Amino acid sequence: MTLDVLAVEAFTEGRLGRDDAETQRQLDAALAAARGYCGWHVTPVNTGAQVTVDGTGGALLALPTLALSAVTAVTEDGVELDVDTLEWSLRGLVRKPYGQLWTTRFSGVTATITHGYASAPDFESAVLSAIERGTFAAGGGETPRVIGPFQYASATSAGSLFTDPERSVLDRYALERMP
After folding, report:
1. For the chain, where are the E strands, in sequence order?
2. What span, in angstroms and rounded, lies between the C-alpha atoms of 120 and 3?
3. What's the rounded Cα separation, in Å, for the pair 98 and 83?
4. Cβ contacts of residue 148 below 8 Å, gap of 6+?
5. Is 44 exposed, middle or buried (0-12, 13-18, 19+ CB in 10 A)?
6. Euclidean distance between CA atoms 136 and 132, whole angstroms
7. Model confidence band, residue 95 (pLDDT cutoffs 50, 70, 90)
8. What is the CA angle 32-33-35, rounded to 5?
């Protein structure tokens, strides 16, 4: 599935139409909130993304991704590194050769990477569920779901745009929280 206005229209059974500008706005807001919660792009694959991170001063550097597929350039303290000498993992960890340490400077490393999942159906469903629930409606408040004569509000935690089940899905894609 691709997260686009067609997916929103299908998920909401036409309540939010593909041609309505509000549908795109809600999709953009929901994706921004989910990506912010997770701390990275997640989906789809993003080629040529530039990320800037603080230097760790240690042997490992963590890039903000859990699905790294290529490292095409790295600059440390303004100096271009030879990416062919770097080791990196799918989880975004990067190591320099011979145990060399990374800079300690804030925003000291910039990398150009390809990362993200081509498809993440559970992540996408959590985003669509939040949109369908009305979390990102223009009024900012949640629209209760009406079933017959009853209205139901979702089980969201205080300060969260996502329900507990949605957050449990998003947690699988979230970067480790840093102090």
Report:
1. 46-53, 60-62, 68-76, 79-81, 87-88, 93-95, 109-115, 145-147, 150-152
2. 10
3. 14
4. none
5. middle
6. 9
7. very high
8. 65
What residues are paired with 60 via a beta bridge? Answer: 95
- Local structure of residue 100 (DSSP, 8 states): P
Give the residues across from 70 on adjacent strands: 114
Bridge-based pairing of strands 79-81 and 109-115 is unpaired
> CA–CA separation, 11 vs 18, rounded Å?
11
What does DSSP assign to residue 163?
Answer: B
Instruction: Give the model's pLDDT for residue 78.
Output: 97
178: tokens are: 């840093």
CB 173 within 8 A of CB 116: no
Residues 100 and 118: their CA atoms lie apart, in Å, by: 33
Per-residue pLDDT of 121-165, as tens digits, reads 999 999 999 999 987 776 555 555 556 665 455 554 445 789 999
70: helix, strand or coil: strand
pTM of the model: 0.85
Supply 14's token pair: 């036409």
Spatial separation of the C-alpha atoms in residues 39 and 55, rounded to whole Å? 17
